[in-house]
Amino acid sequence: MRCAESAHDFAAVWDIATPSRPGRLPGVSMAGFGARTRELFDLDVVPYPAVTVAVDLSDGPIAVDDNSSGRQNGSVVVGLAASGVRGRGRDIECLQVRLSPVVAHAVLGVSSELGGMVVSLDDLWGRDAARTQEQLRAAGSWDDRFAIAEAALVRRHEAGRAVEPEVAFVWGQMVTSLGGVRVERLAAEVGWSRKRLWSRFRAQIGLSPKRAAQLVRFDHAAHRLAAGHSAAQVAAEIGYVDQSHLHRDVKAFAGVTPTGVAVAPWLAVDDVAWAAPEYLSKA
């Protein structure tokens, strides 16, 4: 069984495909993953400021566990800030789509219900999930798969319900500031009370504004740690009050220390699969 010997070892056993052209839908990033070995993989997934759709294209099902939803087999949707997410499978092949929570609200039809949860794609898309998965399996190339997935996302996005402009603006400001903006200032900018912003944002994004900003900041910190920067450097650069506050956020989101995040195997493939992540756009 292959666990996390090192980030370098983990990155070396994957074939990673990315779209050859920009997508039609802002706020969406896609990547294809194929294991180069038939060993059993068992790994922790670091939380991201995106809703993740993982379409299982393997011969055997991928099992995904988390702290609150139990085990799901096959294609899943991972909500914002889901903790304790762990993937397990052999001879893995999958298409992963990361959605800005602004886009996810329309594409998936739910938001608040997904916060911190892992659910089956079948539960959200019904028969459309099976049809899309069959088309993806039959496709002759990753570019064909990306086109099929994009068409499904665009179709559902056009039929879905957009978030309120104020909510989209607040999310965009969080992304631009790397999570460093004060929620009270954002409420004043959109002309809402703090209570109204809290309620509308949580209902449409799936997290409270404060938690969402913390997640964006954690994501930036995690990648800085993985790039070799010390915890003290990262805390100072990103605006944490001190190193203990960085440690607290990392522990809350990832369940490990900053040192553990720095060597997290899944982060080793991020710069390849998500070099310019659209899911962190303002969309």
TrEMBL record:
Pfam families: HTH_18. Keywords: DNA-binding, Transcription, Transcription regulation. It comes from the Bacteria. Residues 164-264 form the HTH araC/xylS-type domain. GO terms for molecular function: DNA-binding transcription factor activity; sequence-specific DNA binding. Gene3D superfamilies: Homeodomain-like (1.10.10.60). The keyword Hydrolase does not apply. The keyword Cell inner membrane does not apply. This is Helix-turn-helix domain-containing protein. It comes from Streptomyces sp. R35.
